[in-house]
Amino acid sequence: MAAPVPLTEYQQSYHWRNKNCGPWAKEWVTKTLPTVKVEGQGNTATISSVTSVEGDCDLGQRKGKLLTIYDLQVAAKWAGSDGTTEFSGTLNIPELSHEAIDGLSDYVFDITIDQSSKDADSFRAWLKATLPGVLTPLLNGFRDDLLQAHGLFETPLASGAATPAAFKQGYSPAPPAEAHAKIAAQKKKDDAGEKKGLRTVAVEVSATLHASAADLWSLLTDRARVPMWSRASADIKPEVGAKYTLFNGNVSGAVISVDPPRKIVQSWQTKSPGWPSDHHGIMTITLDQGSDSTKVTFALDGVPADKESDILRALDAFYIQGLKQMGLGTIL
C-alpha cells in the first residue's frame, strides 16, 4: 500500500493546538466562589473557602475556532446565620462541566450542614433553594472568562493573529442538544429476556474533511481529544482488547483491531431505548487520506432492523456533525 500523500503547509495549519488550562481553572474557582453571598428571609450565607478543585480544563484550537473542554469537581465550605444562630457546612459541585452550558446536563449542588436541629434543617432548606440561583449564572461565566484569559494562542494562525473576541464569535458548541433529546426521548421498548432471531442491518455515514488521517486518528482515539468533538466524557485506548466508552457511557464496547491511522474496528453498543442490552454491533471506522483531505467512514454492522433510521441519525448527529463543528469543514 502506497504511503499517504503528505499534506501541504496550508493543510497542516488545520491541525489542533491544545492548551492545558487546569491551573488557571483551579485559580478561577478558588478566587471566584468566595465572592458568593446570598440573603433573604432574615438569613445570610457566604462561601467562606474552596477546599478542593479536581479535574481537567483544556482549550483546543483549530482553523480559528476554539473548543473548551472542562470537567471539574469542586468542594467548598460555607458559613451563615439566621440572625440568632451561626451555621456552617460544605458545598460540593460534582460536575462543573461544559455540558451544563451546552444544555446537556444541569449543575448539581450538594449542600450539607454541620449543626443538627430544627432551625438547622430550616436554614439548609433555605440555602438549597437560594444558592443555586446565584451560583448558576456565575458558573456559566466560566467559559467566557476562560476564552478571555487563554483565547489567544502564542502562535498566530496561518491567516494572521486572532483575538479572544474573534474566538468567542467562532466558538462551536456541542452537537445539537435537540438531536440528543430526540434520541433520549424515544419511546422505551421492552428489551428484557433473550433476543432470538434478531434481524439486523448495516448502516454507514461518511464525510470528507480538511484534515490528515493522522490528525483524525488522534481525535477519534486519544482519550484527551475525543471530548473536543463528542462534547462528552470518554474513555478509550487504541489497543486490541481495550474496552471503551463514549458520550458519557451511552456508547460502549471493545477494540477488535487497529491499523493506525487507517482503520479501527470495535464492538459497539448503545443505551438508546430499543437496543438489546445483550447485543453488540461491529463498528468499522476507516480513514482514507487524499491529497488535501481525508474521508472518514463510520460503518456499523449488526443494527437491529427497527433501529436503522434512529442509529443513522445518531451517527450523523454525534460523530459526523461533532467533527464538522470543530471547523474541519466538509468537501462537497
Automatic annotation (TrEMBL):
GO cellular component: cytosol
Record domain Activator of Hsp90 ATPase AHSA1-like N-terminal: where: 18-152
Molecular function terms from GO: ATPase activator activity; protein-folding chaperone binding
GO terms, biological process: protein folding
Pfam families: Aha1_N, AHSA1
PANTHER family, per the entry: HEAT SHOCK PROTEIN 90 HSP90 CO-CHAPERONE AHA-1, LD43819P
Record-stated family: Belongs to the AHA1 family.
Descriptive protein name: Activator of Hsp90 ATPase AHSA1-like N-terminal domain-containing protein
Originating organism: Cutaneotrichosporon spelunceum
